[in-house]
Amino acid sequence: MSHFTDLAHQYIDGEWKPGSGSWDIIDFNPYTGEKLASITVATAGEVDRAYRAAERAQTEWAETNPYARRLVFERALRIIEDREEEIAETIVAELGGTRLKAAFELHLAKEFLREAVHLALRPEGRILPSPVDGKENRVYRVPVGVVGVISPFNFPFLLSIKSVAPALALGNAVVLKPHQNTPICGGTLVAKVFEEAGLPAGLLNVVVTDIAEIGDALLTHPVPKVISFTGSDKVGRHVATVCAQNFKHAVLELGGNSALIVLDDADVDYAVDAAVFSRFVHQGQVCMAANRILVDRSLEEEFTDKFVAKVKTLRVGDPADPATHIGPLINSQQAEAVSSLVDQTVAAGATALLHGTVEGNLVSPSVLTGFAPDAPILGQEIFGPVALIVPFDGEAEAVRIANDTPYGLSGAVHTADVERGVRIAKRIHTGMIHINDGTVHDEPIVPFGGEKHSGIGRLNGDAMVDVFTTQKWISIQHGRSRFPF
After folding, report:
1. CA-CA distances (angstroms) from residue 224 to 34, 80, 227?
2. Considering only CA atoms, which of 231, 230, 229, 233 is closest in space to residue 379?
3. Which of 37, 212, 295, 467 lies in disulfide reach of 8, CB 3.0 to 4.6 Å?
4. How far apart are CA 410 and CA 309, in angstroms?
5. Closest CA relative to residue 11, chosen from 37, 49, 45
6. Are 19 and 208 in contact (CB under 8 A)?
7. Mean pLDDT in the chain?
8. In this structure, are residues 91 and 182 in contact, taking their beta carbons and an 8 Å threshold?
9. Which has the closest alpha carbon to 151: 187, 120, 115, 124?
10. How far apart, in Å, do the first and last CA atoms of the chain sit?
11. What would the pLDDT profile of 278-295 be if each residue is shown by its tens digit?
12. Exposed, middle or buried by CB within 10 Å (0-12, 13-18, 19+), for 403?
């Protein structure tokens, strides 16, 4: 796989070219501060070219035999397997992911490509009865046409592929806009893989740009019918509003404020392990992360002591070192925001069992407890290595606290009684929740998505067919209709 500078272009209609905007997006390594690449931004005119290329290419692709379409994804999978080490190094360099995190992201990306191979054959038509004699009702599943994909900086390679591959497998074309902090992993690297896998030109286009340059052109353009957006709820609200005004379907995978609940009969050591991973994987920059760890008061002291002890063993540093648990946050704004949030929360009366420090973009873990019930930090998503421990008295209070947030993405319940865990899980307003496990999970065929401010719609498995195809009714009158005039 070529190096950063080779991939520092726009990819439109099968051509690699610089953007024609008047400024550059600079791609930095968040750990070393080294400049990896600069990419001249795409203009609204180039977004239009990308969408028009997609529109032209999609017609023939939709008519391509799905068995033939599958071959592209099989080849893409082999390319990723062959270059796994190189792609992992790119993830480490561009987004500060640890080696473990890079391996996790690549594992899932390959799983989603394997599923895309099957998705090509998934859509099924139906024949439905009619109250009219001689009429045959056929319902076809057809591609929506062109899909716009906007991916985030935390799992850019995975989360771009997760929408791009199914959309293509189901006969659509795609215009992908990666996050400006991860233009290679989230954008041009994905395009390179598919180009080498033999995807026809125009079917996947990558525009590296920013709202400051193109405004809402990616959303308001007449060509795309569906926008798949992963990111913050603040931006998601804007995407949903603009899409609705333009009669486009938006699939939104947004932020979370997940609770990991430790009931009075839980295995404490195991719950500690699950909670530490669920909070600190990828520096806490995960939408499904366990933001709040709710612990039955009878276990609070034991759990807290063991949790803090384990967090103290986490190594903060160079993400390229396999022994590192916690690498840098994506940029200095994030590092400063997380640090000042901790300071404000402690100043407002919370107790810092561990108070993290900041060095460059490295933020070491904080563990906070002793909040006022209305502490603002309890209601928001923290995209960083900050754990909140909240004691509760009894199941009802655990459920109330878990639900006391605008978000509803993931969660976990730890208990010796699995069915007790399920009963509680059913009462928590969230799209996904796991018994006796962590909060960070994604699988190719299980409906993935959130409730409340955590998003609209689902991805994965059959949900991909629902999102990236539409239904078309074609009726045939085998006899003759009688018309009243």
Report:
1. 36, 28, 7
2. 233
3. 37
4. 26
5. 49
6. yes
7. 97
8. no
9. 187
10. 68
11. 999 999 999 999 999 999
12. middle
Of 171, 147, 170, the closest CA to residue 243 belongs to 147
Q: Is the separation of the CB atoms in 439 and 455 below 8 Å?
A: no
Neighbour tally for 314: CB within 10 Å = 14
Q: Is the dihedral of CA 323, 326, 330, 335 positive or negative?
A: negative
User: Residue 103: is it exposed, middle or buried by C-beta count within 10 angstroms (0-12/13-18/19+)?
Assistant: middle
Best CA proximity match to 251, nearest among 232, 218, 235, 228: 228
Locate 244 and state its tokens.
């609705």
- What does DSSP say about strands 249-253 and 455-456: parallel, antiparallel, or unpaired? antiparallel
pLDDT at 250 exceeding the cut of 50: yes
Instruction: Tell me the C-alpha distance between 86 and 303, whole Å.
Output: 40
Task: Give the β-pairing of 204-206 and 135-143.
Answer: unpaired
For the chain, how many residues are written? 485
Encoded amino acid at 471, one letter: Q
Tell me, what amino acid is at 163? S
Amino acid identity, position 482: R
Please give the DSSP secondary-structure letter assigned to residue 185: I
pTM of the predicted structure, to 2 decimals: 0.97
3-state helix, strand, coil in the chain (%, to 5): 40, 20, 35
As a whole number, mean pLDDT of residues 289-310 equals 98
User: Distance between alpha carbon 273 and the CA centroid of its chain, in Å?
Assistant: 24
Report the alpha-carbon distance of residue 71 to residue 58 in Å, rounded: 17
Residues designated catalytic? 253, 287
Which amino acid is it at 107? H
Task: Round to whole Å and give the CA distance between 53 and 13.
Answer: 5
